[in-house]
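User: Please fill in residues for this 199-position structure.
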């Protein structure tokens, strides 16, 4: 994604592909057709904390402020912002487990499954807060794992379906495709543990 003009086109194209194909995924119940408005794609569903988790989930679900609703009513939210040239300047990708799951998990167990991948250059701190990072759960003890590159919609959906739901569907594997990826880590962080999809 080093070609600035292709960032917005790539992200929009991937979302349109997922929208056209979502009925082929066993785990996807619904998807919203996301459109670009003033260099913003998707909607920001808010900052989840233990105290507001159920309220924000219910609001996102009832007002359809999600990108994808899974068959267990967990939500996936994808939010991208672009500069005037179409280059990605931030993203916020969330997996929001349903707080009233059939497994009767406690709210704490549900929250511990929450995942978020941010691209945010403003809070950069070497190793501790890399430009792209994966948050696990929302508690103070949460982990923040460095991610080597910006995540596209197909990348994030692949991570959720493959590593959270352990999907064996062959169609899920088609989400992870070869693409040119700009490494967003400095040389020190690149040599440490990090999440990287593809080559």
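Assistant: Residues filled in for all 199 positions:
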């Amino acid at each position: 994604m080093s070609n600035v003009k292709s960032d917005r086109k790539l992200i929009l194209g991937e979302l349109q592909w997922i929208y056209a194909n979502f009925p082929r995924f066993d785990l996807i119940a619904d998807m919203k057709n996301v459109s670009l408005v003033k260099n913003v794609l998707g909607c920001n569903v808010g900052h989840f904390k233990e105290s507001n988790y159920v309220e924000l989930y219910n609001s996102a679900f009832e007002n359809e402020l999600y990108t994808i609703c899974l068959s267990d009513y967990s939500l996936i939210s994808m939010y991208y912002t672009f500069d005037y040239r179409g280059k990605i300047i931030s993203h916020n990708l969330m997996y929001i487990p349903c707080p009233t799951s059939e497994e009767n998990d406690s709210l704490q167990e549900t929250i511990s499954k929450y995942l978020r991948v941010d691209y945010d250059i403003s809070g950069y701190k070497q190793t501790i807060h890399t430009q792209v990072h994966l948050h696990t759960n929302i508690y103070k003890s949460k982990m923040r794992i460095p991610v080597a590159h910006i995540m596209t919609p197909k990348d994030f959906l692949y991570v959720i379906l493959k590593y959270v739901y352990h999907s064996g569907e062959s169609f899920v594997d088609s989400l992870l495709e070869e693409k040119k990826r700009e490494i967003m880590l400095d040389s020190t962080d690149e040599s440490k543990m990090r999440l990287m999809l593809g080559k």
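For context: The mean pLDDT is 83.
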